[in-house]
Design goal:
Radius of gyration: 18 Å
Distance between the termini: 36 Å
Number of domains: 1
CATH superfamily: Ferritin, core subunit, four-helix bundle
Largest sheet: none
C-alpha cells in the first residue's frame, strides 16, 4: 500500500483551479469523478428502463424512489466536475475508453435493461453493495473535499431512505426459490466484483498516493465478497465460486455455466 500524501478533505476547488496542486492530481481527480458520475448515471438509466416495464404498483413506487435518488447522486458528482470547469458532456466523453473495461460491465448491463423482477432485485442488491463500499470507504475520506462532501450526501440519502433491495436476499429466496436466486447471482457476481477495477493498477496507485482513494481495488472486492457472504448466510445460498485473476469469472466448478 503506497503512503498517502494528502489527508482527507485537504484540497478545495480553488486549490485545483489555481494550480496549487500537482498537475497529475487534477488529471487523476477528473478521471475518478467522471467514472463515479457515469456509474451513477448508468444506474439511474437502469432504474428508468425498469420502471417503464413494471406493472406491480409497490415495486414501481420503490423503483421510482431509487431512480430519483440515483439521478440526484449523479447530479451531485457532475456539479463537482462543473466547479472544476468540466461539463457533463466532457466528463462523459472522458469515460468512453473506461466503458470498455470489465469495471463498467455491471452498470452498463443494468442500464441496458433488466430481465424480470428477480434479475432487478439481485442487480439492485449488487449495485447497492458495491456503491456503498466504493463511496463509504474510498470517496467519503477523499483528499478532494467537494467529492468527500458529495459522498457524505449520498450516504446520508441512503441512510435516511429505505434502500430498495437492501437486505432482501431472504425475501428473494422465499419468493423465487434458492435455485433461481443462485442462478441470478451467477449472472451478476463476476461483473459486480469486477466493478472495483483491477488490483494494483497504476491509476489506483496514483489515487491512493493523492488520497483520492483509501483502499486498493482488490481490498474492496474482498470486502464485497465478505459482506455478500454474510448477507447470504441466513438463506442457505452459497456464493458461486470465482476464478482468482482479474477480471474475475465464474469458476468451471459452477454446474451449467
Amino acid at each position: 500500500m503506497p503512503r498517502r500524501e494528502l489527508p482527507p478533505l485537504s484540497i478545495e476547488a480553488d486549490d485545483v483551479r489555481c494550480g496549487r496542486v500537482d498537475p497529475h492530481y487534477r488529471v487523476a481527480l477528473i478521471r475518478l469523478l467522471a467514472a463515479h458520475a457515469m456509474a451513477e448515471k448508468l444506474t439511474a438509466l437502469g432504474y428508468e428502463r425498469a420502471l417503464a416495464s413494471l406493472t406491480d404498483e409497490a415495486l414501481r413506487v420503490a423503483v421510482a424512489k431509487k431512480l430519483a435518488e440515483e439521478r440526484h447522486h449523479a447530479s451531485l458528482v457532475y456539479r463537482v466536475l462543473r466547479d472544476l470547469g468540466v461539463s457533463q458532456q466532457e466528463a462523459d466523453r472522458a469515460t468512453i475508453p473506461m466503458l470498455k473495461a470489465p469495471s463498467f460491465e455491471a452498470p452498463l448491463r443494468f442500464a441496458r435493461g433488466i430481465a424480470g423482477e428477480l434479475d432487478l432485485t439481485i442487480a439492485a442488491l449488487s449495485l447497492d453493495m458495491t456503491g456503498l463500499l466504493m463511496i463509504g470507504i474510498n470517496y467519503k475520506e477523499s483528499s478532494y473535499a467537494p467529492h468527500a462532501r458529495a459522498a457524505e450526501r449520498i450516504l446520508q440519502d441512503d441512510a435516511e431512505n429505505k434502500r430498495f433491495a437492501a437486505g432482501e436476499f431472504t425475501d428473494a429466496v422465499a419468493r423465487f426459490g434458492a435455485d433461481a436466486v443462485s442462478d441470478a447471482l451467477c449472472r451478476w457476481l463476476p461483473a459486480t466484483v469486477n466493478f472495483f477495477g483491477p488490483p494494483g493498477s497504476g491509476f489506483s496507485y496514483e489515487c491512493l498516493c493523492f488520497g483520492l482513494k483509501a483502499c486498493d481495488n482488490k481490498d474492496l472486492a474482498e470486502m464485497y465478497l465478505s459482506m455478500l457472504e454474510r448477507r447470504l448466510e441466513p438463506t442457505g445460498v452459497a456464493i458461486p465460486p470465482l476464478t482468482k485473476g482479474y477480471p474475475r469469472a465464474l469458476s468451471n466448478a459452477v454446474p451449467g455455466f
